[in-house]
Specification:
Blueprint: E1 3-9, E2 12-17, H1 26-49
Antiparallel strand pairs: 1-2
Amino acid sequence: MALIKTIKYGSGEIRIHDDYSKDKTAEETQHIVDEVSRLVIDFYRREAAG
């Protein structure tokens, strides 16, 4: 498991590792990104609607 990126977030940090995606194809990875993006967009739409 290799650390790919560390992102400072407030007083904490987000660490991104390659152990989940290293065995995935480019298409599988893109599908995961699309699904997560859809969930995030849906969340913010619900928040904006009240």
